[in-house]
Description:
Elements: H1 12-15, E1 25-30, E2 33-39, H2 42-51, H3 54-63, H4 65-74, H5 77-84, H6 92-117
Antiparallel strand pairs: 1-2
Helix pairs in contact: 2-6, 3-6, 4-5
Amino acid sequence: MGRMRFKDEVNPEYVMRTTPDEKAFYFFWDIGRFTGISARSLEEFYEKISIAPSKSLEFHFVRGDFERWVREVLGDPHLANMIGSIDRSLKDKKLRAMLKMKIRRRINQLRTLLDAQK
């Protein structure tokens, strides 16, 4: 089988936009304990995954917060499903690496789609 194509699935410009502060992703240690880290775009989200504490990544990952934000705020069900497919038992460096790999792959796909629209 050939590679999957994502031609008309999403509006890449919309997914890659910068959101207002109230729609940003806020990283928490746990309920009510903000880390001071937030992301307002998919690219910023990728960058912040690199520096957010592992405990925060694990907290949000098991709750489905990452996939919910990607689906509902950024409007990318494909990336939300990619994040949702990650093994829930992953922790620390392995979880961070897997999140970064999936997000980077999707950013590259979206950039390719944006370039094709020009």
